[in-house]
Design a protein that fits this description.
Elements (H helix, E strand, L loop, with lengths): L4 H20 L3 H12 L1 H7 L1 E10 L9 E10 L2 E10 L4 E10 L2 H10 L1
Antiparallel strand pairs: 1-2, 2-3, 3-4
Helix pairs in contact: 1-2
Length: 116
C-alpha cells in the first residue's frame, strides 16, 4: 500500500504518542513524543521529506575528511508543513539542519520551497 509521507509521519507521531501513553500514562505521551522529536529533529525532518533539491556543497569550518552538501527539503511532520535546508553526506545521511520554516498550508510550503 502506498501513502504520502505526510500521512505516514502523522501516523508515526500518533503511534509514538500512544505507545508512550501506555508506558508512562495518559498525558505524558504527547509531551514525551515532542521531546523525542526535539532530540532527533534532524533525522525526523529528513525522514519526513516529500521533496528534496540539491543546492550546493557545504563548506565546513572543520577540516572534515568527507564532503557534505546542502539540500533543501519540503515535507510534513506532526501535522505541520515545513521547508528546511539540511547538511547531507554522499550516502544520503543527514548531519544537520541549517534552517527550518513551518507552514500551516501545503501550498505555502511548496511556494517557499520553490523560492528557496
Amino acid at each position: 500500500m502506498m501513502q504520502s509521507i505526510g500521512v505516514a509521519s502523522d501516523r508515526v507521531m500518533a503511534a509514538l504518542i500512544s505507545g508512550l501513553e501506555i508506558e508512562f500514562g495518559r498525558g505524558a505521551g504527547e509531551a514525551l513524543a515532542h521531546r523525542f522529536l526535539e532530540a532527533e529533529e534532524v533525522e525526523f525532518h529528513w525522514d519526513a521529506r516529500v521533496q528534496e533539491c540539491w543546492i550546493g556543497t557545504y563548506e565546513s569550518a572543520d577540516d572534515e575528511d568527507f564532503e557534505l552538501d546542502r539540500v533543501k527539503i519540503f515535507g510534513r511532520l506532526d501535522g505541520k508543513w515545513f521547508v528546511a535546508v539540511m547538511i547531507v553526506d554522499g550516502d544520503g545521511n543527514a548531519h544537520g539542519m541549517m534552517e527550518k520554516r513551518i507552514f500551516r498550508r501545503q501550498q505555502e510550503a511548496r511556494t517557499a520551497f520553490a523560492q528557496a
